[in-house]
Design goal:
- The complex is a heterodimer.
- By secondary structure, chain A is mainly α.
- Chain A contains 21 helices and two strands.
- In chain A, strands 1-2 form a two-stranded antiparallel sheet.
- The longest helix of chain A has about 40 residues.
- Chain A is globular and about 70 Å long.
- Chain B is built from five helices and no strands.
- The chains are: A mainly alpha, B mainly alpha.
- At the A-B interface, helix 8, helix 9, helix 17, helix 18 and helix 19 of A face helix 1, helix 2, helix 3, helix 4 and helix 5 of B.
């Protein structure tokens, strides 16, 4: 409790509060622009945080994260273009409601739902992360390896599009993490004789290349369709008591779903909002209204996608495992500042953990205020010429990658990853599993090798230790589930067809 | 999604080749006596998994190609898509060459960052719009961005960018 109060007093002091305000504002603006994302902004801001103390750096980055998740709803509602992936479900009902003459109402519901979702998940972060981290300190290296292995399988299986391509992307990410000096032996691995490769591929140029430059170039090639924009309005933007009564249960339910989904490593806001939207539709008294401007749909989607922020921070803080792509960047930020993430973060750097929590809450509050007050300005952001935005992102990516190590080698690495990111977008290989595996595979290898050194090369603790065994079985089930469910649905289809044929013959 | 089945196969083939290359390179990673698993185990395992998965992807896509050759209408549609995609391949290549040239010129340190960025931004905005008037817009953006970044990064953050100052 005392640590939390100290963190609040830090976060509410001038410099951190200014950073949180700037981060949230920039995040909201970036999130509102289709094609640009919070992930990109966090990647571009990572080099700037070198010159900050770790608590200030984390405050800035987490505020961008919170702002960006929320900002996407503006263009989703007014332009039928989700600013971020997380706002895809909001588009389905936000735009129809706005175009029926109630843009303020649509935006107000989304903004308030985002705020409530963020606050609910914040409480979960506050209450769950410390007990989880204490439990995790009892993990053996084999347990940790099994947990990371489960996270890798989950990320690959749940990724967008083809599962096979998701797993290939994850394997590729793991392989890209291998080059460099081996921590155990001190010998170079897969460096191909290049001295610059002794430190391997750094995370920062990789993230900037994949998610900033690569994405912008994919957008440049991809183009997009124009939609008739709706004028933003503040009329009806604030929810009344009657609205809270009407949408209260939906708000709490969707926030809880978003929090739980956010906890699952690699599963992001888009899945949280999809699950919540689907559940809201299934329990609604008027499911046919969904997709036609239904207020319940907007509330469900926005509450869940913001709730995933707090949920995803739980495994990051408690276990050192990123819950989402943005958390991978937060993890990279911690590592850049020589802070070791993991269960001992609460022990070694409690001030950082609580600062992260307080910054998240303050960012949520500021997000609500900023969006309510500046809705008209934010909606104009989408009219900034794309050619200028893209050019600036290219310039910022290059200088950001250079600033990391004062080396043009990092810039070339960044460009290489941008090519990879572009090709992955082109050929439908998801980038998320690659990025997350890039961080998690070295961790898994380290834990497994440590465990084997302690057990003299004996692999049996992997399946004799109950925690490790349960986690590995879960991983196996996840891996096999898509095939089993396909087999079951084919079997069900065959039975149904047979029954139909029998009925026809009778 | 902007690819044909043939190019999807090529990508899978490339990944398979990369997997083989990494596996062969991993053979030269030496082991240490105190480490039962060794430094080569994970790269070898991952490269084998990559080879297997890429092989499966090749088979899956290849099977799709074989089935599709039964339908001439579908091949004609794909060919039309191929033609328009070839035009954009020049565009794609040009963009990459432009970025590569920008980075290369910066790395030579012959010109200050602000000057190189001015030219790059002007060219980039012009190229993306195809409009001569946007050259002025791009130049202004390049001048402001280049000078601001050069000043802040060299004087405030002490980053070693090629600079006027």
């Amino acid at each position: 409790m005392e640590d939390l109060l100290v963190a609040f007093s830090y976060s509410l002091s001038a410099w951190p509060l200014f950073l949180i305000f700037i981060g949230t504002s920039v995040g909201v603006f970036m999130g509102a622009i289709p094609g640009l994302s919070g992930t990109m902004m966090i990647a571009l801001c990572l080099p700037l945080t070198f010159f900050m103390a770790p608590p200030a750096a984390i405050s800035l980055l987490v505020s961008i994260y919170v702002g960006a998740i929320s900002g996407g709803l503006i263009t989703a509602t007014l332009l039928k273009m989700p600013g971020t992936e997380a706002a895809i479900m909001t588009t389905l009902d936000g735009y129809p409601l706005a175009s029926s003459g109630s843009p303020g109402r649509a935006l107000g519901l989304g903004i308030t739902a985002s705020f409530i979702g963020g606050v609910v998940s914040w409480f979960a972060l506050l209450l769950l992360s410390k007990p989880l981290s204490i439990w995790a300190t009892k993990f053996s290296p084999f347990d940790y390896f099994s947990l990371v292995f489960l996270a890798l399988i989950l990320i690959a299986v749940i990724s967008k599009g083809s599962m096979l391509k998701g797993i290939i992307a994850a394997v590729l990410g793991g392989l890209l993490a291998i080059p460099g000096m081996d921590h155990s032996s001190g010998l170079p691995r897969l460096t191909f004789g290049l001295s610059e490769m002794n430190s391997g591929f750094e995370a920062l140029p990789m993230f900037i290349g994949l998610f900033a430059l690569g994405t912008v170039l994919s957008d440049i090639m991809g183009g997009g369709e124009a939609t008739k924009p709706i004028e933003a309005s503040r009329k009806g933007i604030l929810m009344t008591l009657k609205d809270y009564k009407k949408h209260g249960i939906n708000l709490i339910r969707s926030s809880s779903i978003g929090t739980i989904v956010g906890i699952l490593p690699g599963v992001g806001a888009v899945i949280g909002s999809m699950v919540s939207y689907t559940v809201a539709k299934s329990v609604s008294k008027q499911p046919d209204n969904f997709g036609k401007g239904c207020e319940e749909g907007i509330v469900a989607s926005e509450a869940a996608n913001n709730a995933t922020v707090g949920g995803a921070l739980i495994p990051l803080v408690a276990l050192g495992i990123p819950g989402s792509l943005n958390d991978v960047l937060l993890l990279a930020a911690l590592m850049i500042h020589s802070i070791q993430p993991g269960p001992l973060l609460f022990v070694n750097n409690p001030e950082l953990v609580y600062t992260l929590m307080t910054s998240t809450l303050i960012a949520n509050i500021l997000m609500f205020i900023i969006m309510i007050l500046s809705i008209k300005w934010i909606s104009k952001v989408s009219s900034i010429p794309k050619e200028i935005l893209y050019t600036l992102v290219i310039v910022a990516s290059i200088v950001g990658a250079f600033a990391f190590g004062n080396s043009f080698f990092d810039v070339w690495v960044m460009v290489g990853f941008a090519v990879l990111g572009f090709l992955m977008d082109r050929f439908d290989y998801p980038k998320g599993p690659l990025a997350i595996a890039f961080i998690l595979v070295p961790l898994a290898e380290e834990k497994l090798r440590t465990g084997l050194q302690l057990s003299d090369g004996d692999f049996s603790p992997l399946y004799t230790d109950p925690i490790s065994l349960v986690l590995l079985i879960l991983a196996l089930i996840l891996l096999c589930y898509p095939f089993i469910s396909k087999y079951i649905s084919i079997g069900h289809l065959v039975k149904t067809e047979n029954k139909t044929i029998d009925a026809t013959m009778e | 999604m902007h690819y044909t089945r043939v190019s999807d196969m090529l990508v899978a083939g490339l990944l398979l080749t990369a997997g083989v290359g990494i596996y062969l390179s991993s053979q030269s990673i030496s082991a240490v006596s105190f480490d039962p698993l060794g430094s080569a185990a994970v790269p070898k395992l991952l490269s084998v998994v990559l080879i297997v998965l890429s092989g499966i992807q090749l088979l899956v896509v290849g099977k799709g190609i074989i089935q599709k050759t039964n339908s001439n209408e579908e091949i004609k549609e794909e060919t039309k898509e191929n033609c328009s995609r070839k035009t954009s391949l020049y565009f794609i290549a040009f963009v990459w060459v432009a970025i590569g040239a920008y980075v290369w010129v910066l790395s030579q340190r012959a010109l200050p960052y602000s000057v190189v960025t001015l030219f790059f931004c002007a060219a980039s905005v012009y190229f993306l719009t195809g409009n001569k008037r946007s050259l002025i817009k791009g130049s202004i953006v390049g001048l402001v961005a280049g000078l601001t970044i050069e000043l802040i990064f060299t004087k405030v953050f002490f980053i070693d960018l090629p600079s006027f100052w």
